[in-house]
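Open question from group meeting: does this chain pack into something compact, or does most of it stay loose? Before anyone orders reagents, we agreed to write out a predicted structure and look at it together. Recording both the input and the output here so the notebook holds the full record.
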Amino acid sequence: MFIVLLISKLLFMIASAETSVADSTSVFRLPDLPYEMTALAPNVSEETLRYHYGKHHQTYVDNVNKLIVGTRFASMPLDEIVRQADGPLYNNAAQVLNHNLYFLALAPAAVAKHAPEGPLAAAIKRDFGSFDAMKVQLAKAATSLFGSGWVWLAENKNGNLVILSESNAGNPLRHGLTPLLGIDVWEHAYYIDYRNDRARSIDQLWDVIDWQVVEDRYGKH
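Structure tokens returned:
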């Protein structure tokens, strides 16, 4: 009986240790989209979403979950990993965060808020002259960015707005800025629908950006 109890206790201790290790590691997942895969068409097709969100985004998530195991990043929130990591972990973690921000700022054209109001609208007018002028500057930056990357509308610690062009997985957090809106100019974001016409893909994106989401991100740093 004593031996049976001892074995049971040892098995319980091993199981508890395994649970403790598992609980100390963050497991990142794709965010649930607040719209159906067909809801952004024709601006963003179902096929693009299935590849961009369902495959590319998922791959970045899977890579982060593998790369953090046994490291000091295992229990960190995603934004802290982006601030602190380098190399493959930074690239994949930043791409997870970038895509989270991107996909969650989109909405069907019929329900998206097409222009900001309140403090964000006032900040845009102050820093760019007008909402339309800001859109022109964002589009120009996104069209002219060489190679793959992101163009961001970001906020500094004083609440001022800036447009930031970043190659590859670049995120404003690395510059002490808060990302508000990201435009993805990697080819997988638009090539199915627009082939090499990046400018047209950006023009079509405006109709499915939900500025209510962007408003909600402003002033939260």
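Observations to bring back to the group:
Strands lie at 149-155, 161-167, 178-184.
The domain at 118-217 is CATH 3.55.40.20 (minor pseudopilin epsh fold).
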